[in-house]
Amino acid sequence: MRDVTVYTTEGCGFCTRVKMLLSNRGIEFREENLAGKPDAVVELSEKTGMMTLPQVLVGSILIGGYDETAAAAASGMLADLLAD
């Protein structure tokens, strides 16, 4: 199974929701809380092209935020990415 990384910040409702979605599906993930780390946020946005959090990556593949991750889970795409 590929590693899953969830980039979050404090007080973020969508961050909480995406972590719950992954947990409820039994998907282990590493959380990177970027609260108070503006340089890390800039570095991540340069890497992914996204300016918002959460951001979910499977290996080096960007899934997106909560909505994209929920859609990938519902369509089976997330399971396929994890299996590779």
From TrEMBL:
Pfam families, per database record: Glutaredoxin
InterPro entries membership: Glutaredoxin, Glutaredoxin_subgr, Grx-like_ET, Thioredoxin-like_sf
MF terms (GO), sorted A to Z: electron transfer activity
Tell me which Gene Ontology terms the entry assigns under biological process. Answer: cell redox homeostasis
Where does the record place the Glutaredoxin domain? 4-60
What is the protein's given name? Glutaredoxin domain-containing protein
User: What is the native source organism of this protein?
Assistant: uncultured Solirubrobacteraceae bacterium
